[in-house]
Amino acid sequence: ILNVEQSPQSLHVQEGDSTNFTCSFPSSNFYALHWYRWETAKSPEALFVMTLNGDEKKKGRISATLNTKEGYSYLYIKGSQPEDSATYLCAVYNFNKFYFGSGTKLNVKP
Amino acid sequence: GAGVSQSPSNKVTEKGKDVELRCDPISGHTALYWYRQRLGQGLEFLIYFQGNSAPDKSGLPSDRFSAERTGESVSTLTIQRTQQEDSAVYLCASSFIPIQGGYQPQHFGDGTRLSIL
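ok -> structure tokens follow
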């Protein structure tokens, strides 16, 4: 079993604030890390797949970085909007399995 | 284009009954995954299919759980003699996966909400 930890567990921000959260994982035998957004009553939606140390990915106001040597990834949201409210999941791929963190629940208040 | 489809969307059954959950992946996706999320918990990996084969079944919680996939398409997850702790949302996902594993994003279905009375 591979332990993937996400922090914080939940986050409340005001519209317009920028925010970031963390996914931590064991640095040995790393293959890939995925970020997903899971809105209430919908299915999880893929944001990024990250594979290389130093990877930086961006999609609109959302970006992510990866440090495989120290075992963490950051997800950043610039200028949060109410529609960004969701649970953000990270998953680490290892030996034919995905290990998900418990997610960070983001609530953006208008 | 159709996404991942799961049925039923909701299932309520009595303890001890068998249930069968179905997943139709995106056409052409060779990898298929089953997960469950129990109340207040994170996503728990159950099983993964590459084509019709499951390389590792160790994620299945007990021998009451089984899964199969045919024609590199539809998959069914069967739970025999259901228990109350089986109550959860069961999610299926698929991905187009070349030789390297884990490098393609997963596309999730809407899930089956299973309630055991």
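Chain A has a mean pLDDT of 93.
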